[in-house]
Amino acid sequence: MGEGPHPVCNGNCEPDESKLTFNAICENPVQAICQVSKGSGMLTDSFCSFDIDDESKAKYTPEGIKATCMSKLEQQRVLGMMEYRCRRNREPDCMQTQRMKSAEQLAQIERSKIYTPDRKKYFTKLFTRVKSKMISMIESSTRIPQKHKAMLTKKVSGVNPLFFDSDLPDCFNPTPEGHSLTIALQEDEGGESSSLVVCAGAMLNIEHTNPYALMHIIGHELAHTFDPCALDNETGKPNFFEEVFPQLIKCIRGGKGADGCTDAKVSCNSEAVKREFCETYRSVIPECEEYIKTIPNCPLYVEIDDSEIDPKHPFEHPRLHPTCQLEEAMPDFFGSEVLANIIEEDQKSGWSESLNRPLREMDKMDTLIAMSAFHTRLKEGACFMKNVPYSHPSGKVRVKDIIMSSPNFRKVVCGARAEEGKPESEERSCRGLL
Ligand SMILES: [Zn+2]
């Protein structure tokens, strides 16, 4: 298979007539998949298999059904023993008391079927690869000032995957709503290190997740340890990120003016959001205007109750205004740079460790589809081509304007396709880690 159309399937996994070409997806990934998926953002890969991303559906995959059945069987054995003991004791409410006492034991049985040693090993393998690649890119970088390198590598080295934490029961155990698909960074107590929390749904469906798309998520999360907002907060020096990666903020924002905020692709804090924020939090932060100057790269949130949001126009509330998106944009960008190097490595060696077979040309397209579908279906802006007033930009902006602004990512994944027929002025290229 080479340049021909991708055998895409729509949401019902029926072959779709409108042929999605590699060129179209490289041109504008989210737009292309949204056209073919008729606005749902759901699309399968070239094997006609889905990346599961619906919490309530995670348990209906063959792996999900197997995990539920196996844990039910084992839980039945435990409950059976309890029943036997209770019948002998003749205590009133014995079973209820026993059940409560054994809740954690029963939950642990369920977890053990989801967090199998094989899955944990596989995730850790992908994680370790992304982490070492990011560290080696920082170390060999010719653009990061030498004096800041140790700070960055220390942050990245301090992250490790976390497969259980009793403080987060809704992440590691299934809930009535389903299996959480979250993969997120959590600062450990004391703030010296962080953990990458992998929730039950993400683990259960790991075999159905495109490994490169998963590595992008891992890279994104690792990069949160040094995103522009994290560095503002930590160092107390506004715009410290600029010292570490000169010119990158402006490039990622993509707008005009000294700060790149005029007509930006990635939003800045608008005057309106600053006003709204300070009006809301004046009682808690009396020197609000001064305070927000110390964190210029952090998003300013104003809590709006979900019930106040009009589902037909979710991005148009009188108190919702463009907020700084760098905290999320920068990790997307760094994640794409690291991923590009990993794919390039697999291409050169002719073997994909994560797929356990040689890398095909079509795998790169599958990766871009999986990444786009993932970013498209996230709640802020499914198939929404404009940007949104939240800290996470819309799917289209995340893929086309941020991820694809890594020249190496474009080159490795799309080759000449990305540049074909495009006027020079439309190309966005930012220089990041290297
Ligand atoms: Zn993030």
Explain this structure to me?
- It is a single chain.
- By secondary structure, the chain is mostly helical.
- Helices cover 49% and strands 3% of the residues.
- The protein contains 19 helices and three strands.
- The chain has helices at residues 22-27, 29-36, 62-89, 94-101, 103-114, 117-140, 146-157, 169-172, 200-204, 211-223, 228-235, 240-244, 248-253, 271-281, 288-294, 326-349, 361-377, 395-402, 407-414, and strands at residues 159-162, 183-187, 194-198.
- α2 packs across α17, α10 packs across α16 (326-349) and α16 (326-349) packs across α19.
- The longest helix has 28 residues, at 62-89.
- It is globular.
- The chain binds zinc ion.
- Zinc ion (ZN) binds at residues 220, 224, 328, 331.
Question: What is the molecular shape?
Answer: globular
Distinct bound molecules: zinc ion
Q: Can you give the helix content as a percent range?
A: 40-55%
Mean pLDDT: 87
* Biggest β-sheet description: 3 strands, mixed
* H/I helix tally: 19
Intertermini distance:
33 Å
Strand content: under 5%
Low-confidence stretches: 1-15
Based on helices, strands and strand pairing, what is the structural class? mainly alpha
Give the spatial strand order of the biggest sheet: 1-3-2
**How many beta-strand runs?**
3
Order of helices and strands: HHHHHHHEHEEHHHHHHHHHHH
Global Rg: 23 Å
